[in-house]
Design goal:
With about 300 residues, chain A is an all-alpha fold. Chain A has 14 helices and no strands. Classes of the chains: A mainly alpha (about 300), B mainly alpha (about 270).
C-alpha cells in the first residue's frame, strides 16, 4: 500500500471527495484545541501544581504532609470527613436505591410525578440555598425542634445545627439526586420477569431480591457509591454552614489554612491527600465494575 | 410439592420487606421535599426572626428584597458571569462534541473524560489548586478569572447534554446534504446545528445555572471585591441571620426550576 501508484488517476471530483462521513483528522484536531487549552491550564495544571507545591513549598520534602498529619485538627478532620462521607454514601445508596427502584416500578402518573419531583427538587436549589434551608430546619426554633417539643418527645429544643448530623443530612440532601440518577439506568435495565422466574422456582420475593436482583444491579450501586463518596469528601459550603467551627471537616481546615493562617503549603498537602483518596476510590471502582458502569453513573 | 409454594414464614418475610421498602421511599420523598417547602412557607412570614411556626403572615420579606437595594449588585454580577459562562462553555464544548462524534481522532475517550473530570474532583481540593494557579496568572479577584473557573465547572454538564444530543442526529443526514453539494461546514450548520438548536439552548441554560448557583470557586478565587448572589447569601448566613434570605431563596428556587424545566423540555423536543 505504501508504493506510489503510477497508473493514470481519474480526475478528482470535488463533491465526491467530500462525501466522506468521517471528519478528517486535521480539522478535528483544531476543534478540540479549546478544550485541550482549557483542560491543560485549568484542570491538569492546578492538580499538578498542587502536587508539586505540596512537596516544594515551605520547607519542602514531606514536611508539609508531616505538618498536616501532625496537626490534631487536620487529623481529626480527615477521620471525620471520611466517616461522614461513608455515612452519606450508605444513606444515598439505601434511600437512593429504594427511590430508583420505586421509579422503575411506579405506574400511576401521580406517583411517578411525585417521585420525579422529589428527586429533581434539590437540583433547583444552589448548594448555598440547600444548606440555608437545612440550617433553618434544624435551628433551635426550627421545624424539627418545634415538632419534637410539640409532641412532648423532648422538653428542651435539641442542638441539631452545627453537629456532624447536620452536615450528614445536608450532604445527603445534595448527593441523593445524583445517586438516584446514577443508579436508575441499571435498575431500569433489570428484567423484572427474572423475579417471577425466581418465584416459580420456589424463591420468596425477598430471596429473589437478594440473590437475583442485588447481584445484577451491583455494578450500578458500586459506581454510584464511588461517585457519591468522591464528591462528598470535597464538600465545602455544606460543612461550613451546617457544621460550623465545632464540626471538623477537611474543607473547613483547608479554607482556614488559606484564608486565616495563610499556610498554603499545608493546605496543598491536605488537598493532595483528599485528591489521592478520591482518585484511589475511583480507580478501584473502575477496575471492579468497568468503565461503562462508572460512565453510566455520571449520566453518560 | 410444598417447597415450590412460598411458605407462611416467607410470606411474612416478604410483607416485612415490602413495608420496609415503602417506608424507605416515603422517608426519602419527605426528606427531599421538606426543606424546600419549609423555606417557601417561611418566606411568607412577617416575623422579625426566622422561626416555626410563624406568628404573622405577609409579603414583607419580598418587599424588603426589592426595596433594600442590597440584592441588586450581587444579582447583576451573577447574571453577567452566568451569561459569559453559558457562551464560553458552548465555545469549548460544541466543536469538541463534533470532533468526538464525527471524527476518528485517537484519544477521543480521553478528551471526553477530561471534559467530564471536574464533576468528580473533590471541589475544595480543586479550588486550592485553582487558587495557586490564579495567583500565578494574576486572575484572583477578577471577573474573567471567575468566568474561566465557572466554565470548567459547567463543562461536564454542557458536554454531556450536547454529546447525547448529537448521538441522536444521524450522520447520514449530513452525508445526504453533502451529496447534494453542501460542503461539510454547510451541512453541519444548515442541518445538524439546526436539529441540535434546542439542545444547544438547553446546554447554555444548564451552563448558566451551574455558574449562577456556584459558591465554592467564588469564595476561594473571588477575593473580597466580587460578590455574586450565592456568595452574598453564604456570607449573610455565616455572620448574621437575615430573614429576607427565605424570600430570596424562594425566588432563586423558582427561577432555577423554571430554567431547568425549560432546558429539560428542550432536550426532549430534540429527539
Amino acid at each position: 500500500m505504501t508504493e506510489v501508484d503510477v497508473r493514470p488517476q481519474p480526475p478528482r471530483i470535488r463533491g465526491r471527495r467530500q462525501w466522506n462521513a468521517v471528519l478528517p483528522k486535521l480539522p478535528a484536531m483544531l476543534m478540540v484545541v479549546p478544550l485541550v487549552v482549557v483542560a491543560l491550564l485549568f484542570i491538569i495544571y492546578p492538580l499538578v501544581k498542587l502536587g508539586i507545591d505540596s512537596f516544594t513549598a515551605g520547607e519542602g520534602g514531606f514536611s508539609n504532609y508531616a505538618a498536616a498529619l501532625e496537626s490534631d485538627a487536620i487529623r481529626n478532620s480527615l477521620v471525620s470527613t471520611l466517616t461522614m462521607s461513608v455515612v452519606v454514601t450508605v444513606l444515598c445508596l439505601v434511600l437512593g436505591g429504594s427511590l430508583a427502584w420505586a421509579l422503575t416500578k411506579a405506574r400511576k402518573p401521580i406517583h411517578k410525578g411525585l417521585l420525579w419531583t422529589a428527586v429533581l427538587l434539590p437540583f433547583w436549589m444552589g448548594v448555598v440555598v440547600k444548606s440555608y434551608a437545612w440550617a433553618v430546619l434544624l435551628a433551635k426554633n426550627g421545624l424539627i425542634n418545634s415538632v419534637l417539643t410539640g409532641l412532648g418527645i423532648t422538653e428542651e429544643p435539641l442542638t441539631l445545627l452545627y453537629t456532624p448530623l447536620a452536615v450528614v443530612l445536608g450532604m445527603t440532601y445534595t448527593m441523593l439526586p445524583y445517586a438516584v440518577l446514577a443508579m436508575y439506568p441499571t435498575m431500569a435495565g433489570f428484567d423484572k420477569e427474572l423475579l417471577n422466574s425466581a418465584a416459580v422456582l420456589g424463591s420468596s420475593r425477598t430471596g429473589a431480591m437478594c440473590k437475583v436482583w442485588l447481584p445484577m444491579v451491583r455494578p450500578g450501586l458500586v459506581a454510584g457509591g464511588a461517585i457519591v463518596f468522591a464528591i462528598s469528601i470535597g464538600f465545602y459550603i455544606t460543612p461550613v454552614l451546617l457544621g460550623g467551627a465545632q464540626t471538623p471537616f477537611m474543607a473547613t481546615v483547608i479554607g482556614d489554612d488559606i484564608f486565616a493562617y495563610f499556610n498554603y503549603p499545608r493546605a496543598a498537602a491536605s488537598s493532595v491527600i483528599l485528591l489521592v483518596i478520591a482518585l484511589t476510590v475511583l480507580i478501584v471502582t473502575l477496575k471492579a465494575v468497568g468503565a461503562k458502569a462508572l460512565r453510566g453513573g455520571l449520566g453518560k | 410439592m410444598s417447597h415450590t409454594i412460598p411458605g407462611r414464614r416467607n410470606r411474612l418475610l416478604d410483607r416485612t420487606t415490602a413495608i420496609l421498602g415503602r417506608v424507605l421511599v416515603v422517608c426519602a420523598v419527605v426528606f427531599l421535599l421538606a426543606p424546600a417547602l419549609f423555606i417557601v412557607v417561611l418566606s411568607f412570614s412577617n416575623d422579625k426572626r426566622v422561626g416555626f411556626p410563624p406568628q404573622s403572615w405577609g409579603l414583607d420579606r419580598y418587599v424588603e428584597i426589592f426595596t433594600s437595594g442590597k440584592w441588586g449588585a450581587p444579582t447583576l454580577l451573577s447574571l453577567e458571569i452566568g451569561a459569559w459562562v453559558a457562551v464560553a462553555s458552548l465555545v469549548v464544548a460544541l466543536p469538541l462534541v463534533f470532533a468526538l462524534k464525527r471524527s476518528s481522532l485517537p484519544g477521543r475517550g480521553l478528551l471526553e473524560g477530561m471534559a467530564i473530570a471536574p464533576l468528580v474532583i473533590p471541589v475544595s481540593a480543586y479550588a486550592v489548586g485553582l487558587y495557586a494557579v490564579f495567583a500565578q496568572l494574576e486572575l484572583l479577584g477578577t471577573k474573567h478569572g471567575i468566568v474561566l473557573a465557572h466554565t470548567v465547572h459547567a463543562l461536564p454538564m454542557v458536554v454531556i447534554v450536547l454529546s447525547t444530543a448529537l448521538d441522536q442526529v444521524r450522520p447520514d443526514l449530513e452525508l445526504a446534504a453533502m451529496t447534494m453539494g453542501a460542503n461539510r461546514l454547510k451541512a453541519w450548520t444548515s442541518v445538524t446545528v439546526r436539529l441540535l438548536a434546542p439542545s444547544i439552548i438547553a446546554a447554555m441554560l444548564f451552563g448558566f445555572i451551574s455558574s449562577f448557583d456556584e459558591a465554592v470557586f467564588i469564595t476561594f478565587l473571588g477575593g473580597v471585591g466580587l460578590v455574586t448572589l450565592p456568595k452574598y447569601i453564604f456570607d449573610s448566613v455565616q455572620y448574621a441571620v437575615d430573614p429576607a434570605i427565605t424570600a430570596m431563596a424562594t425566588i432563586l428556587m423558582l427561577t432555577t426550576a423554571g430554567i431547568m424545566l425549560l432546558g429539560s423540555a428542550l432536550r426532549k423536543d430534540n429527539k
